[in-house]
Specification:
The chain has one domain. 74% of the residues lie in helices and 0% in strands. It contains 3 helices and no strands. It is elongated and about 50 Å long.
Length: 90
């Protein structure tokens, strides 16, 4: 189980990194093109979809952290997570 949870955390972190890249490019493109540009509506939808995916990824990472918790007791708190995991919980 520990190996599986480490693998899931690594995959979640990689997925989160890719979503951050997508969000940054969408926001940058929107800023450059402006709201009047025909492509802006698609970029806004892209941004919303990426944010929804980020929320899902965050939830899955929290579930993985809970499963990794020794007794599976209580809620996972950011101050109990590894330093790299705390960044994902924000």
């Amino acid at each position: 189980m520990d190996r599986l949870s480490r693998m899931a955390l690594a995959a979640g972190k990689n997925f989160n990194d890719e979503l951050t890249l997508i969000l940054n490019h969408a926001e940058s493109s929107l800023g450059l093109l402006g709201a009047a540009h025909p492509a802006s509506a698609g970029l806004v939808e892209l941004e919303h979809a990426a944010r929804r995916c980020a929320d899902i990824a965050r939830s899955l990472l929290l579930l993985t952290l809970r499963a990794r918790d020794n007794a599976g007791r209580g809620r996972v708190r950011a101050d109990h997570a590894d330093p790299g995991d705390r960044e994902l919980l924000r």
